[in-house]
Specification:
heterodimer; A: about 625 residues; alpha+beta; 5-stranded mixed beta sheet; 4-stranded mixed beta sheet; 23 strands; globular; B: about 375 residues; mainly alpha; 14 helices; about 0% strand
Chain lengths: ~625, ~375
């Protein structure tokens, strides 16, 4: 019997099609391959990861509200960062080549020296000290003799010399700018001594090896791992550094870095962190983060995802919480466009007039939370910066809220009140364009609005523009603004670094991007008095006794010019959880900068003790 | 044997039968082939136009992403290369194809896309290609939103048909009112409630992550169970709102067709209700929804920014959010390209296979 011909009905065909589509879809919906930290092809020289410190850890107690980590909670530190996105690259020399704060510099990468701003000291770490010749053209660095990389190789002066040469030869690499203008040559006098010859006198060249704000400009990597790699594309995965932690694994789908203790850490006798594991992961939105914190699922939340209001909300009911203030290195400021083409903001009188309209007390109490004190200077009120304070000079230029003085100052330059109730200058109404990188309603935006309200009272119109990301940078660098409600960082280790920004040699005209050959003179100041003293400071040892009068001269010149008016200190509240770990910095014992995203956090890691005893 | 007059029904244009007969002597002039060719041609032109529009949209945003990145990293203290920033910016502008005029950049982008089959390096994760980070996020978004969309559609169409058929019952009124209420609530609002009640207060479902990190990420029952459990909360919020929306839409279609002659005829014939609903009502109601589903599935590839952020879900929506923050052209264009490609392709496929689903639609007659 012949088989009947096979007939496929439309329904059968449709069902088959639907089934095929569903299969394809579900197949594609399957999870991606496990994230590997193995070097990518072409990275044959990359070292093998360090051996596990112990047997595979027992899984943490599973459950919907557990910490959701792959390591035992009682042995693990958990920190949050607002964004983590680079999981397969640890190259510190290219933009976005590494996720710096995902644990790499809080536990793995170490620096020669650390500035402890809270204590006003310099901590010698991989470096044991530095010295200059009398003319400041030669720098000698002494290195720790017993330091080793995590793969067991010794950390020597060859590594430092190799990195300096790399950065001198490759101008596109991060860190090369601070090397290029100054480095003549570097050599290893012995395995633990580096001799650096400079192209000219520079008493601050060693700053590039100090972890100041956030970290240091130059990051030292192992020569034996890097020397045969292309520094532009090498992923340095897994990273090899000298710190107490090594990379255990990354879990991109969990936005998580897992670090484990290096059993052979060279500095164990001085600093031996108790947490066996250090996990940095991406934070949840604020409300969810607060819930996680109360369940002890986070030890150190990031400030961006656990703000003051949320901290205050749970503070009274949750006892395992330490809350301390952290002063941002950069006070909030009002930047003035000082370019000569700006008829009003190019005049110091107008800049002071606008500064006098800032009600700093009120801004610090009402707009900024937690309440923050007015800023008298252009640096954070850390103990380390106390030595730069000069009350006698500051008293002569007080930042007081004084609308009458502001009106008088406007009058003095000819910006007088017109018949319409608005001030006029050369027959035109006085108006300013105020730029801010803060979103509408954010704090810097509100500061701008308070200035607008005050200016209105004396007949001055200010229009505010809020731009973020590249559009802001474009306008900011090209000088397409009169005023900017933002901040200008600069004082890391001494105010001379800040004054350098305003040197005339860094000036670029309006319309050009202020990304020149030196620091960014975004305010386009040309002030001969400040310029002269700033350039003297450039070649003066900031720690020397003779520098004090120069610093005071510079301060006075700055007050007179006022290219940037400090408004308030910028206080951020930082919370720690004591459920699993104690030994955190506290208000009474601020032994270190408490910022969890700074390189200095390695010392906090080293001070933690298990809460259970 | 009579020769049927071929007609492309999509446009229903008048045509010359003789000319058509003459053209049929050539196989390539067969009207079905011509229709396919015209439809595919239109698809390609639309694809090119959309990609070009997306390119222009992103590149006309003021500002240079390399400048912005360097400055933002400097402001965070992460990047210290101030002195030779001009050289550095020039180097990376070259790498990212941002040198020259807009036309030069466009040519560079199209060459990258068509010749190298790459989206270009991701500014978010240099030097990786954008396709790498997109592909890393894509399965999570497809798994969560693709399945949620399908489940929501299927349930919504079935429920909507039932509600339409039973439009006079009190229960149908109640359910319709509930659907109406929830259809106006944003999914992320519901997600927040679900998160806090089911995730934290009752603690019956994991409140974040795509799976339990204790479980190894590989094909296993344990891993699949973990993924499903973790996807439940985010998926619930999407599915529930989707069901409400599809239900209302389908109910509207069903109610409109209840007076049709063929239904009265079916009832008059004494066909069972189940048969009438499934073979007469549902079959007519689901067709317009099918086209809408194809478009919805295309937009799955955009991800859900808020949802993925709320649940720390590693999908495309979150990647899109990160990429726009730094104006990462290659990643942004990559995600948009995938969305455009999928939406247009789904529409094309639906156009081409619709006759299989709808007997009223024919390519030729």
């Amino acid at each position: 019997m012949m088989d009947a011909p096979i007939r496929v009905t439309r329904r059968q065909f449709t069902l088959s099609l639907a089934f095929a589509a569903a299969s394809t879809l579900l197949g594609a919906c399957g999870p991606s391959a496990p994230s590997a930290q193995a070097p990518a092809a072409g990275e044959a020289g990359a070292p093998k990861p360090a051996a596990p410190t112990s047997a595979a850890p027992a899984a943490t107690a599973a459950g919907p509200t557990s910490a959701q980590i792959p390591t035992p909670r009682g042995q693990t530190f958990i920190g949050d960062r607002p964004t983590l996105r680079i999981f397969d690259s640890f190259n510190p020399y290219v933009p976005n080549g590494e996720d710096t704060a995902g644990g790499i510099h809080q536990g793995a990468r170490e620096y020669l020296f650390y500035a402890n701003f809270e204590q006003g000291t310099i901590i010698n770490h991989l470096g044991k000290g530095w010295s200059y010749n009398p003319s400041f053209t030669e720098l000698t660095l002494d290195l720790a003799p017993n330091a080793t990389w995590s793969d067991g190789q010794p950390f020597t002066s060859d590594d430092v010399v190799w990195v300096l040469s790399l950065l001198k030869e490759n101008t596109q690499l991060n860190g090369s700018s601070v090397i290029q203008p100054w480095l003549d040559s570097a050599s290893a006098a012995d395995p633990h001594t580096v001799k650096i010859k400079l192209l000219g006198p520079n008493p601050r060249f060693h700053y590039i090896f100090i972890a100041g704000i956030y970290d240091s400009p130059v990051r030292i990597v192992p020569k034996h791992v890097w020397q045969n790699q292309d520094p532009n594309t090498f992923k340095f995965n897994p990273p090899v550094y000298t710190g107490p932690y090594v990379l255990d694994r990354v879990i991109p789908a969990q936005f998580m870095f897992v670090w484990k203790k290096n059993p052979n850490y060279w500095n164990k006798s001085v600093m031996d962190p108790q947490p066996q594991y250090m996990i940095w992961r991406q934070a949840l939105p604020m409300d969810a983060n607060a819930e996680e914190f109360q369940r002890g699922n986070i030890d150190a939340p990031g400030i961006d995802n656990f703000d003051y209001q949320h901290q205050q909300a749970i503070r009274s009911s949750y006892k395992n919480m330490i809350m301390i203030p952290f002063l941002d290195p950069c006070p909030r400021q009002l930047l003035f466009n000082c370019d000569a083409s700006k008829p009003l903001t190019s005049k110091p009188e107008v800049r002071w007039a606008l500064s006098s309209l800032l009600n700093r007390e009120q801004i610090g109490k009402v707009i900024w939370q937690p309440p923050s004190p007015p800023a008298d200077y252009w640096w954070a009120a850390w103990k380390a910066n106390d030595r730069w304070v000069a009350p006698d000079i500051q008293k002569q230029y007080p930042f007081t809220y004084d609308p009458k003085k502001a009106g008088d100052l406007f009058n003095s330059v000819g910006a007088t009140m017109g018949s319409s109730g608005l001030r006029e200058f050369n027959g035109q109404p006085v108006t300013f364009d105020l730029l801010t990188p803060a979103p509408i309603g954010a704090r810097e935006y509100q500061i701008g609005q308070s200035l607008i309200d005050e200016a209105k009272k004396i007949g001055v119109t200010i229009n505010i523009r809020s731009l973020q990301g590249p559009p802001y940078t474009d306008a900011y660098l090209q000088g397409n603004w009169d005023l900017d409600s933002a901040w200008l960082c600069g004082v890391a280790l001494d105010p001379g670094q800040y004054y350098q920004i305003f040197e005339t040699q860094n000036y670029v005209s309006l319309g050009q991007r202020a990304l020149g050959t030196g620091p960014n003179n975004v305010v386009r100041l040309k002030d001969p008095a400040l310029d002269e003293v700033a350039r003297k400071l450039d070649v003066t040892d900031p720690s020397g006794a003779s520098s004090k009068p120069l610093f005071e001269q510079a301060m006075e010149a700055y007050f007179k010019a006022l290219p940037v008016a400090p408004i308030i200190q910028t206080t951020y509240p930082i919370s720690y959880n004591t459920t699993y770990w104690t030994g955190w910095p506290t208000a009474d014992n601020l032994y270190n900068v408490p910022a969890t995203w700074w390189a200095h956090f390695v010392f906090v890691m080293g001070s933690l003790k298990a809460a259970s005893g | 044997m009579a020769i049927a007059t071929p007609v492309a029904i999509v446009e229903d244009a008048a045509f010359d039968a003789e000319a058509l007969l003459a053209r049929r002597r050539h196989w390539w002039a067969h009207p079905v082939l011509l229709y396919y060719a015209r439809r595919v041609g239109l698809y390609l032109v639309t694809l090119w136009g959309s990609i070009t529009a997306a390119f222009l949209f992103f590149h006309l945003i003021p500002g240079n992403p390399i400048d912005a990145l360097i400055v933002s990293l400097q402001l965070q203290g992460q990047y210290t290369n101030q002195g030779n920033s001009q050289e550095l910016v020039a180097y990376y502008k070259e790498v990212f194809g941002l040198n020259g005029t807009l036309w030069d950049q466009y040519a560079h982008y199209m060459r990258q896309l068509l010749v190298d089959h790459q989206f270009g390096p991701a500014l978010l994760n240099y030097p990786n290609d954008a396709s790498l980070i997109i592909l890393r996020a894509l399965p999570w978004t497809m798994g969560l939103l693709g399945v949620s969309t399908l489940v929501g559609w299927l349930s919504g169409v079935l429920l909507g048909t039932l509600l339409g058929w039973l439009r006079h019952s009190a229960l149908a009124d109640v359910v319709t009112s509930i659907a109406l209420f929830f259809s106006h609530i944003p999914y992320y609002f519901l997600a927040l409630y679900l998160l806090f009640f089911l995730g934290y207060r009752l603690a019956v479902l994991p409140p974040n992550n795509a799976y339990d990190p204790i479980v190894e990420q590989r094909f296993s029952l344990e891993f699949a169970a973990s993924v499903l459990t973790h996807a439940t909360l985010p998926a619930l919020s999407v599915i529930f709102i989707a069901i409400c929306n599809w239900t209302l839409g389908t109910r509207m279609l069903v109610v409109a067709m209840l007076g049709e002659d063929y239904l009265q005829f079916a009832e008059a014939k004494g066909l069972p209700t189940r048969q009438i609903v499934t073979r007469y009502v549902l079959r007519n109601a689901w067709l317009p929804q099918l086209t809408a589903l194809s478009i919805s599935l295309g937009f799955v590839f955009n991800g859900q920014v808020l949802l993925e952020q709320l649940f720390r879900y590693p999908g495309l929506g979150y990647l899109l959010f990160q990429a726009q923050a730094v104006l990462d052209y290659d990643t942004l264009q990559g995600i948009v390209f995938i969305t455009i490609f999928v939406v247009l392709t789904m529409l094309l496929v639906i156009d081409l296979i619709l006759p299989l689903f709808d007997p009223r639609v024919k390519l030729v007659r």
